[in-house]
Amino acid sequence: MTMGDQTPVIEGTLGIHILSSTMGESIIVTLPDKSWFVIDAFSGARVKASGPNRPHAVLSFLKRFGLNAVDCNFVLLTHLHEDHYEGVPFLLKQLRELHPTLPLARHGNYRETGVLKVLEKHYKAEYLVSSKVKHIGIRADEVAKLFANDCIDLGQWELLHSHSETQCKVFTVAPGENIVNRFYNPKAFRSDLDQEAPKEVLEIVKSQNKIINDMSVAVCVQFGETCVLLPGDCEKEAWRAIAEKPLPNRTIASVVDPLGAVNFMKAPHHASARAWNSYLESLYRPCDVTVATHHEKGQNQLPNPEGLALIRRTGTGVAIPDRSLLAPELQEQADDLPRFTRIPVPHGRRGSELEAEKLRAGLDGSIRSEPQDEIAWVSLSFHDDGSSSGRWYGGSQAAFLPAFAARPQAASGRA
């Protein structure tokens, strides 16, 4: 890892690096023991692009800041929505060339229910069969192998990483068995899996959309007294299930206690109001700031003013990776991030050349400069006493929406 004012990777701290685009999000977490991991991976930049014009932004970020594949603990897939998983197979393939046993962490039921088949056919249907797009740098028949080998089957309260010297732990807090049993319908994934037509395959995925967000794997990182919560696209039912789950010990209990000190949280489901309930509100109270990533599909654009207002009323400010994607009225309210260092992370759009050149994170390979887009991202590092470095890093479009009012007093008891 490197150090200095021109890098967000600061040795001895916990770094949360959040990349965003209209087509998805990805989170890179750098740990104080110099290892790191990735949560989700989209394949595009903040610009709208598809197929051969869609680069792998996560690899560009890893290369820019010198993160080596051999130091990666795992790649984690939170849930089966394409704005989170679309770039995972290609990223995993590239990293495993240098780290052959690099695990993929995902919910255990994915192995049992034929989801791997859906993923494989989704890639084949949408990216290999489509007349608009020829490929995204990986063959569809490779997808199932990548997702089936060297995997960690996740449940609730799974310990993913522990380092006693730095007092750092990484573990899951969701999804729990209660929500899996309540919502999961394996038959929907198994049905029509032998159909090759894109329409049938995408209908299977679409049929699960209402529950997939609540099946998100939520990750907590504890570093001394610092607590960071990265909840994927968890919505109301997921938060309710977390609140209901008996807690295994006080160390983890502090994560989900409504009055506990969650120092930082990524806004769940792109700060959608659909994720909101009183339990989530209580978790925001100790947070000074959250980060809301973007998602745009048709007329549905997130984050929207309603969801952001709910967060800002708790006394929590919202960092935005790309202000240009906000609604006009929100752009007018956006300020620069406090103590902000702008570091552009450009990457070229080469599509099919990516695989042939074997772009390698942090080690070799090159990224052509024309045409270039800038990755939309923000980073903040934390010390083990719960304080942040006080300095934000990010791309030139990063912005900050301040809280509406002073932080309200937290009520006693569980919300």
Describe, in plain words, how this protein is organized in 3D.
The strands form four sheets. The protein has a nine-stranded mixed beta sheet. α13 links the parallel β11 and β12. The protein is globular and about 50 Å long. By secondary structure, the protein is α/β, with parallel strands linked by helices. The C terminus is likely disordered. It starts with 13 loop residues before the first strand and ends in a 14-residue tail after the last strand.
- Number of E-state strands: 21
Largest sheet: 9 strands, mixed
Radius of gyration: 20 Å
Quaternary structure classification: single chain
What is the straight-line distance between the termini? 41 Å
Overall pLDDT: 74
Helical content, roughly?
Answer: 25-40%
Based on Cα principal axes, name the global outline.
globular
The computed structural class is alpha/beta
What descriptive keywords fit this protein?
415 residues; alpha/beta; eight-stranded mixed sheet; 21 strands; disordered C terminus
Quick take:
This protein has helices spanning 57-64, 82-85, 88-98, 109-112, 115-128, 140-148, 177-183, 186-190, 198-207, 209-212, 236-244, 250-256, 278-284, 305-312, 328-333, 353-357; strands spanning 14-21, 24-30, 36-39, 72-76, 104-107, 151-154, 159-163, 168-174, 218-223, 226-230, 264-266, 289-291, 295-297, 300-302, 317-320, 340-342, 346-348, 372-374, 376-382, 388-394, 399-401.
Write the layout of secondary structure elements.
Blueprint: E1 14-21, E2 24-30, E3 36-39, H1 57-64, E4 72-76, H2 82-85, H3 88-98, E5 104-107, H4 109-112, H5 115-128, H6 140-148, E6 151-154, E7 159-163, E8 168-174, H7 177-183, H8 186-190, H9 198-207, H10 209-212, E9 218-223, E10 226-230, H11 236-244, H12 250-256, E11 264-266, H13 278-284, E12 289-291, E13 295-297, E14 300-302, H14 305-312, E15 317-320, H15 328-333, E16 340-342, E17 346-348, H16 353-357, E18 372-374, E19 376-382, E20 388-394, E21 399-401
Parallel strand pairs: 3-4, 4-5, 5-6, 10-11, 11-12, 12-15, 16-20
Antiparallel strand pairs: 1-2, 1-19, 2-3, 7-8, 8-9, 9-10, 13-14, 15-21, 17-18, 19-20
Helix pairs in contact: 5-6, 5-9
